[in-house]
Specification:
The complex is a heterodimer of chains A (181) and B (629). Chain A is mainly α and 181 residues long. Chain A is 42% helix and 0% strand. Chain B has one domain: Quinoprotein alcohol dehydrogenase-like superfamily (Methanol Dehydrogenase, Chain A). Classes of the chains: A mainly alpha (181), B mainly beta (629).
Chain lengths: 181, 629
């Protein structure tokens, strides 16, 4: 009822992690379980560019192998949705429309990249114009799940029409205008 | 319960006193369509206007004669936003044309009032809060100097409702303003060089500053923003010469922090008692309970009192903070020398709907029941226009000026609103059609008062909302809200109003419906013209007595600024306004938000999906004048 502890409790966090990992192992193919067994890399995916410009014939860095483990994974997306609320992402991005932070539904083109490892890095390191850095606050496995959820938002929105009219007014009395407008 | 919406009356007096008396009994009560027809007929039939015996007037000490400058956003300490200039009038306003423009270089909500002193105009930008000084003595008003305060970029992450700034103030050769990242800065008005810079707010706990400072007796008054981040609200006073902190009064917590001492004499029993800023909260919740001060301050030199509102309690989810949540969503009278509190009144004890109390406060003297009273007017977010005795804090009257169903009335004996239980917010339940919205029947956009008409010109909104409480989780520096909100147009579908409120008679004289919320301030002049802007960019002049549209000009972007009038070095009257849509209502455009999720921007996106096809982002100063004769 009163103020909450600033961080989600560890037991729950650990439990979530176990669920994700066991599902990942049970539900995915051999290749994915190999990826899950990769040694944890501090700081998440290492080779992440936030630009599409690679001078002198350069090429984009390869995707992190973990991308495949989380991207589009229904369980990760589910967990990610819960964590998106729990860590107050929702307070700045709402349910994708954006507010303080930019829209995550596609109205605004990705500033820092929409690949899951790019989104991971956005969350992990923060971004200069007001996106907090969550390294050290959110465990890496959870960041992956949140990143999977963020990507799913964009995909889910793509078949929704964009409203261009306000919703119908609430019921109630409306006063007359007393002067011509 | 009976929903309330005040009827609209013709601005006449005298001609139809009996009808008026009869109708005044219906004040605050929905009138039937027959009565509406009758009233429309009356307002058409009425032709002559004879003033009532005594119109309300601002106290002379707080509203000195107009010298043609505009030194503080509200024009004067009484906050009338009334200009005595009358060159531009009802018959020549049709010739009003752009004299010069100036690009602010930033396409975000431009809420500031231009400040004009001698031959210079000063304007503050939205983040990153550039300050520009324009030389009015030269053709085209070239740039005299500019200053870049370089606020921390991360401060954009703690601005709840667009990265706005409500302007600066001129005092003693300095131009003083605030930055989003929480600094108050005084510049040498001649050179633009900083004289002092004082850091007041801490973005790492979610504090920022968006308000315009006010200088009273050599003290710069500044309050914080961040009510959606679990900050603890305050008002601070800095020495205008040095920038040193003179006092700081918190709006929650123990009496000593709130600067409540033996002088504190609130009118109503529910505000009397020790350490209510602690006791009216669950343990420790006051430490993250909001009550910020990002709006307006007025000052009465005769009484030596400043008046300021306090913003909403946090989190929005009221179930996490049982109690009255003092001293949020109310108004303080304080001694400007010491900060000591004199009285307090709470508009919304235990606010459930984000009804901040920081809207403008206009000081007036007028007869009430035959006796002259020193009052203040405050159109609150909750939809009621309060007339409060500014000596004692007694509520003299509280009238609904917009459609309200969350409150059924204000009990003048206890001062407390009567809450409609049907619109109480709940965990896990969507409560539909709560009116007004979190943003209120009006938000920050300030009204103007004309002593010639006795009308308060209120720019405001007509919006309702669906609201669901969810559990708010406190993580310092991130939002602490706990509500999913979706806004929608209010009854009738027009999302905005410009209402001319007949102060002495407690009712609207006329109103203009606007499609979009009116998020710009108002200005009224001695030639009986009211100026304001719309969110799709129209800058309008209305006849202050009838509301008739006399002139309009389409600016490049939606208007959410504060119009001002001044006398230029050439003796002509000028009217200035910033164009540049944004603020909470315009966040969908300023931040390019996605209307497929109506909860965006604390629910405002839901009500404004069409704004994206009605205007685009901008940032431009427009200055108008009549052609030289």
């Amino acid at each position: 009822m009163s103020s909450r502890s600033p961080r989600p409790d560890h037991a729950q966090r650990a439990a979530a992690l176990v669920v994700v990992l066991s599902l990942a192992v049970a539900g995915c193919n051999q290749q994915n379980s190999d990826i899950a067994n990769l040694p944890a890399s501090e700081g998440g995916p290492q080779n992440v560019a936030v630009t599409g410009l690679f001078p002198a014939g350069g090429v984009p860095p390869p995707e992190d192998p973990r991308d495949k483990l989380y991207d589009g994974d229904a369980h990760a997306i589910n967990e990610g949705q819960r964590l998106f609320e729990r860590y107050n992402c929702v307070g700045c991005h709402f349910h994708g429309a954006g507010g303080i932070g930019p829209a995550l539904l596609g109205a605004d083109p990705w500033r820092y990249g929409g690949r899951i490892d790019q989104i991971f890095q956005t969350i992990y390191r923060g971004r200069p114009n007001g996106m907090p850095a969550w390294a050290g606050t959110i465990p890496e496995a959870e960041i992956w799940e949140i990143a999977a959820y963020v990507r799913s938002l964009d995909k889910a929105a793509s078949d929704k029409p964009i409203p261009t009219e306000p919703p119908p007014p609430a019921a109630g009395p409306s006063p007359p205008s007393a002067a011509a407008n | 319960m009976t929903p309330t919406f005040p009827p609209v009356f013709a601005p006449s007096t005298g001609a139809i006193p009996r009808l008026r008396r009869a109708l005044s009994r219906a004040r605050g009560v929905l009138i039937g369509s027959a009565a509406t027809l009758l009233l429309t007929a009356v307002s058409v039939a009425q032709t002559t206007t004879s003033g009532p015996p005594t119109l309300p007037v601002p106290p002379a000490a707080a509203a000195p004669p107009d010298d043609g400058q505009w030194m503080m956003p509200a024009k004067n300490y009484a906050a009338t936003r009334y200009s005595e200039l009358d060159q531009i009038n009802g018959s020549n306003v049709k010739d009003l044309r752009v004299e010069f423009t100036f690009s602010m270089g930033v396409n975000r909500g431009q809420e500031a009032a231009p400040i004009i002193v001698k031959n210079t105009m000063y304007v503050v930008d939205a983040y990153p809060n550039y300050v520009f000084a324009l030389d009015l003595s030269q053709s085209g008003a070239p740039l005299k100097w500019q200053y870049a305060p370089e606020p921390e970029a991360a401060s954009q992450g703690v601005a709840c409702c667009d990265v706005v700034n409500r302007g600066g103030v001129f005092f003693d050769g300095k131009f003083i303003f605030n930055t989003l990242d929480g600094n108050t800065i005084a510049l040498d008005a001649e050179t633009g060089k900083p004289v002092w810079r004082t850091k007041l707010a801490d973005i790492s706990v979610g504090e920022s500053i968006t308000m315009a400072p006010l200088v009273v007796k050599g003290k710069v008054l500044v309050g914080d923003s961040g009510g959606e981040f679990g900050v603890r609200g305050w008002l601070a006073a800095l020495d205008a010469g040095t920038g040193k902190l003179a006092w700081k009064a918190f709006h929650t917590g123990p009496d000593k922090d709130v600067l409540i001492g033996s002088d504190f004499k609130p009118f109503y029993p529910s505000d009397q008692g020790q350490d209510l800023g602690v006791k009216s909260w669950p343990p420790d919740a006051w430490k993250i309970g909001g009550g910020t001060m990002w709006g307006w301050i007025a000052y009465d030199p005769d009484l030596n009192l400043i008046y300021n509102g306090t913003a909403n309690p946090g989190p929005w989810n009221q179930e996490q903070r049982p109690g009255d949540n003092k001293w949020t969503a109310g108004i303080f009278a304080r001694d400007p020398d010491t900060g000591g509190a004199k009285w307090f009144y709470q508009f919304n004890p235990h606010d459930e709907h984000d009804y901040d109390g920081i809207n403008e406060i206009v000081l007036l003297d007028l007869p009430v029941n035959g006796q002259m009273r020193k009052v203040l007017l405050h159109p609150d977010r909750n939809g009621y226009l309060y007339m409060i005795d500014r000596v004692t804090g007694e509520v003299i009257a509280a009238d609904a000026y917009g459609y309200v169903n969350s409150i059924t009335g204000i009990d003048l004996k206890t001062g407390r609103p009567t809450i409609n239980p049907d619109k109480a917010t709940k965990l896990g339940a969507v409560v539909r059609d709560i009116c007004p919205t979190a943003s209120g029947a009006k938000d920050w956009e300030p009204s103007a008062f004309s002593p010639r008409t006795g009308f308060l010109y209120i720019p405001h909104e007509n919006l309702c909302m669906d609201w669901e409480n969810v559990e708010a989780n406190y993580i310092a520096g991130t939002p602490y809200v706990g509500a999913n909100v979706v806004m929608k147009p209010g009854p009738g579908g027009n999302r905005g109003f410009l209402t001319a409120w007949d102060v002495a008679n407690h009712r609207p004289a006329w109103r203009i419906k606007e499609d979009l919320p009116v998020w710009s301030g108002a200005l009224v002049t001695a030639a009986d013209l009211v100026f304001y802007g719309t969110m799709d960019g129209w800058f309008k002049a209305l006849d202050a007595r009838t509301g008739e549209l006399k002139w309009q000009f389409r600016t490049g972007s939606g208007i959410v600024g504060q119009p001002v009038a001044y006398r230029g070095p050439d003796g002509r009257e000028y009217v200035a306004i910033l164009s540049g849509v944004g603020g909470w209502a315009g966040a969908i455009v300023a931040g390019n938000l996605d209307p497929r999720d109506p909860t965006g921007a604390l629910g405002f996106v839901g009500a404004m999906p069409d704004l994206k096809r009605k205007t685009t982002a901008g940032g431009m100063l427009y200055v108008f004048a009549l052609p030289p004769s």
